[in-house]
Write a structure and sequence with these properties.
about 675 residues, alpha/beta, Rossmann fold, GMP Synthetase, Chain A, domain 3, Heme Oxygenase, Chain A, 3 domains, nine-stranded mixed sheet, six-stranded mixed sheet
């Protein structure tokens, strides 16, 4: 036993009917019920599972995931917790490396991995597409950190803590979940879609803020981007969150002006600092700090000092090692640059490895400049580089379709000293865990970003993603698209969407055949078209079957007329193929396949849950979600091999036009306001 079940039983004796877990969308779990459920699940696990082999845990937030986490900890079975945004390759690597078992029915079962003795959790810190090493943590270390968090903030904050960070993120598990259980609070753990996080990297902050208000949440753990989104909504709408007593922010440096804006709105924000190797939290601001921007004082379980070169060095209970490599005793050299002031507060000022030294001999921490850039409303993400150059430069991701990046950079430069001002910048596609350029906690993976955008020629597919990102943002802003991704549409609206999908999907193969007829001298594209034609033939019939399974009239859909917007999209595609460059068709392919992945992964499950429709009503979406993930890799290889500039221009132009035309199809669908949610 690790002691957590004993604490749960103690809470159950003192407050048996008090709510321990509130998944929001299902029945809450009392302390008495939680004690019984964890004990029963622990016994089942101990009799059924090999204690030496990690158990893969990849669930959305909810009571089931929470009970499983507690029972596995109690049963001393190592947990391999995988974030939902990991790609198939990342999951397979993590599972194989840790010896947790096969990920595919046909895959071979790996031998148990040499985990350090006492491992309770294996965490892959970077979410890399390569082969990162899993960090191994003990139950004692994680619970010690959770206890330090409770001691630092006070048990009076143990009200209703809401899980917002993606499932599988260590910071939320230790400092949010375990700390709440220790303190006897209520862990509010709704599915991510229920709190505006159907896509955790494109949150619906309006929904998030409203849910936090409605549920009277008292504490949160956020990354800076989530804090910025909530602050923007509160400033715009006047909404306030008076029940919050603690908002801890970590994962990356928080701009000082954002902290000031948050506190002006009454948000009790405290910035912290932590590392996976330290089981998350190392330090946290106290409630009465007068100077914003520090990461606070180290918590009771940890000591910090600054090495002569400015690196932060930590001492205390650390990780056990990585898979196959037990850790050598001694302090942890973090790789972070910082200082400790005369009040004992830790100030984190950048990464040792990312430090920029300009040709004028000035040392610049890129995080400092990035914080100023992303503090501008028009800049979503920024990576500053320029080692050896006269001045720093930046890669920028726009925050909205009409973002003026030049004006935003100029505004950020006004608060920077001359030697740190951005002199050149380039607009790029977003940095995400899916493309290997962002960690699960929101940190930039600088080497991966540099390899894609700075080391040599940029691949055409990456240019296409960057050049169409504003168009994608415009598409995602359409109310019908947002509602579909969140699952908040009626059955009639879903059926109307399927009807329009049928009207354009039935033209997919004819469009391909038309393009093929005009590309007879292009063997590179003919082979791809033949594969697409074979793959896509008959998919329109899947849609009719889905309509019937959803309670609609498939025969009526078959003989109906398309909406004007749908007809306009299809007609435009035929016209471009027949009168222009037929290779432009691959611009349409890019839009439809990339959008279908989002609709399948997030929209289908959310709609199914809200409307209570059977899986048979989502055959087209779910099948295409799986297919198009593979298709996108095939597509990227195809277009990266194109040598003719006129083909690239035609594809890019068509993609931009198709985002607008396909968005028009969604915008033409009427939405019912009264959505009946399944019980």
């Amino acid at each position: 036993m690790n002691g957590l079940l004993a604490i749960i039983r103690d809470h159950a004796l003192k407050n048996p009917q008090g709510i321990a877990l509130d998944p929001v969308t299902s029945v809450p779990v009392s302390w008495a019920e939680l004690a019984d459920k964890v004990a029963d699940r622990t016994a089942a696990l101990e009799s059924a599972e090999d204690p030496g082999q990690p158990h893969v845990l990849c669930l959305d937030h909810g009571a089931e995931a929470a009970i499983a986490e507690l029972a596995l900890l109690e049963a001393r079975i190592p947990v391999l917790s995988l974030p939902s945004f990991f790609t198939r390759e990342q999951v397979q690597h993590a599972v194989a490396a840790s010896g947790a078992g096969a990920t595919e029915p046909s895959a071979s079962h790996p031998a148990p991995s040499p985990l350090p003795r006492g491992t309770a959790r294996v965490t892959f810190t970077s979410g890399s597409t390569g082969t990162p090493k899993g960090v191994c943590l003990s139950a004692h270390q994680m619970l010690a950190v959770a206890a330090s968090v409770v001691e630092a903030v006070g048990a009076e904050h143990a009200g209703s803590h809401c899980a917002l960070l993606p499932p599988g993120i260590l910071l939320e598990t230790v400092a949010g979940f375990f700390a709440t259980i220790l303190a006897g609070g209520t862990y509010v753990c709704p599915p991510q879609a229920e709190v505006g996080l159907a896509d955790p990297f494109r949150p619906d902050f309006v929904m998030m803020a409203q849910r936090l208000a409605d549920w009277e949440i008292t504490s949160l753990i956020l990354v800076p981007e989530y804090l910025a989104g909530l602050v923007a909504v509160m400033e715009k709408t006047g909404l306030r969150l008076p029940h919050l007593t603690l908002v801890a922010v970590g994962g990356a440096r928080v701009p000082v002006d954002l902290l000031a804006r948050a506190r002006a709105l009454g948000l009790p924000v405290r910035q912290g600092y932590g590392l996976t190797e330290c089981a998350s939290v190392v330090s946290l601001e106290s409630a009465d700090e007068e100077m914003a921007g520090s990461a606070g004082r180290p918590l009771g379980h940890m000591k910090a000092r600054i090495a002569p070169d400015g690196e932060i060095v930590l001492e205390g209970e650390m990780f056990l090692g990585t898979i196959g490599e037990p850790r050598e005793p001694g302090p942890l050299h973090t790789g972070d640059i910082g200082r400790i002031d005369d009040q004992g507060r830790l100030w984190v000022e950048g990464r040792k490895s990312a430090l920029i030294v300009t040709s004028f001999g000035r040392n610049i921490s890129p995080e400092w400049v990035e914080a100023e850039l992303t503090g501008q409303p028009d800049i979503l993400q920024a990576m500053v580089h320029g080692d050896g150059l006269p001045a720093p430069e930046a890669l920028l991701v726009p925050a909205r379709p009409d973002a003026d990046l030049a004006v935003a950079v100029a505004a950020a430069n006004t608060v920077l000293p001359a030697y740190a001002r951005i002199t050149k910048w380039r607009e790029v596609a977003p940095f995400t865990p899916m493309n290997g350029q962002l960690t699960g906690n929101g940190r930039l993976r600088r080497k991966a970003i540099t390899a894609m955008w700075l080391d040599g020629p940029v691949q055409f597919f990456d240019k296409l993603e960057a050049a169409t990102f504003r168009s994608r943002l415009g598409f995602l802003a359409i109310p019908q698209v947002r509602a579909g991704l969140a699952g908040t549409i009626s059955r009639r609206t879903y059926i109307d969407y399927l009807r329009q999908a049928w009207h354009h999907v039935r033209h997919t193969v004819p469009l391909m055949q038309a393009a093929r007829a005009r590309l007879l001298n292009r063997q590179d594209l003919l082979t791809a078209l033949d594969e697409y034609i074979e793959e896509e033939t008959g998919h329109e019939e899947w849609i009719l079957a889905d309509i019937a399974a959803a309670g609609g009239d498939a025969d009526a859909a078959r003989v109906s007329d398309p909406a004007p917007a749908t007809k306009a999209m299809v007609d435009h595609a035929y016209r471009c193929i027949e009168e222009g460059n037929p290779a432009s068709f691959f611009g349409m392919v890019y839009v439809l396949e990339s959008v279908s992945v989002a609709l399948a992964q997030r929209g289908a499950s959310a709609v199914a849950e809200n409307l209570g429709l059977p899986p048979e009503a989502f055959t087209y979406l779910t099948s295409h979600g799986a297919l198009d993930q593979d298709h996108m890799a095939f597509y990227a290889k195809l277009v990266n091999g194109l040598q003719r500039e006129e083909d690239r221009i035609a594809i890019l132009q068509m993609a931009r036009e198709m985002f607008g035309l396909f968005g028009g199809v969604f915008a033409s669908i009427d939405m019912e306001e009264d959505v009946h949610v399944a019980a």
